[in-house]
Amino acid sequence: MQQEINNENHFVVDLLTTLREEKFSPAGWWRFLAHSWNMSRKTANEHPTLKRSWLIVSGIISMLAVIMLVACFAFEGSGTALRLLPGFLFCVVWQQSDLYWHLGLNRQATTGRILPTIGVANFFTWLRALGASFLLGRLIGGISTPSWLALSVFLCGVATDILDGQVARRTSTQSKLGQIGDGEADFCLYLALTIILVQNTVLPLWIGLLMLLRFLIPLVAALGSYFLFARTVHFGSTSLGKYAGLAQCLYFLVLLAPTQLAFISHYLTLPLLIATIILLIAAPMAQIIANVRA
């Protein structure tokens, strides 16, 4: 089993090395994507239960996406629904394609064996990604998002973020797929929420940019290591990263809190902002250091 994992890692590194040697030419990119896609298809065909699980998850996510579009049509009108459709559809399709692309990473962390299904934990993660796709679709379509709607999506995201980790640990289904999916879902959700809060003049622009840098700096470092040096990166979270995420989460909750709770949120805003800024500066540095050491 470990030999199989090592072979896959060497295969990916060889592809990246070839891509770099071809100076990232269109032909090089085409071969890279074609080989990667064939590798994903091979994994899916060799594990039919996993492929069937992906189809089920994709079907449920698609059904929920349709329900969200119908709700938008009913409550906000056909014009808003049509503006939402292109961006939302693109994000959902990308989300499920990304899941298929990374089926080979659905390996149990302790044993390295391929898990037979996507699993409940990963399903919760992709539900959070669906909420992020909804908010991103609104942004792409130029649709304003009221604070109550952003808060509703955010609370669902927080719930699934808690559940996916708990379920994965209790069922021993922690995997690299879950780590990557969790990071991508968080990035998209916090990206959308930050832009929405800035648009609604609830969050100052400079704070919004600082929050985005928390995700962008490790992302750029990871992509640079991946594509420029053909080296895989460490996706595990750090303690500072967890505290930064918690502080940012609480700060968003305070900003999105209903006006009836203003007498409480008024006293919490500044302390949470200071803690969030400090941790948002320290967390990316800790993540880069962890990758360098790994």
Question: How does the SSE layout of this entry go?
Answer:
Elements (H helix, E strand, L loop, with lengths): L1 H20 L4 H21 L1 H29 L1 H24 L18 H21 L6 H24 L5 H24 L5 H24 L10 H18 L5 H32 L1
Features:
globular, 294 residues, mainly alpha
Quick check: average pLDDT?
Answer: 83
Number of strands: 0
Write the H/E string, N to C. HHHHHHHHHH
Strand content: under 5%
Protein model, in words:
The chain is mostly helical. The protein has three domains: 1-46; 47-202; 208-294, no CATH class. 81% of the residues lie in helices and 0% in strands. The chain contains ten helices and no strands. α5 runs antiparallel to α6. The longest helix has 32 residues, at 262-293. The radius of gyration is 20 Å and the shape is globular. It starts with a helix and ends with a helix. The model is unreliable at 1-9 (pLDDT under 50).
Short characterization:
The chain is mostly helical. Helices cover 81% and strands 0% of the residues.
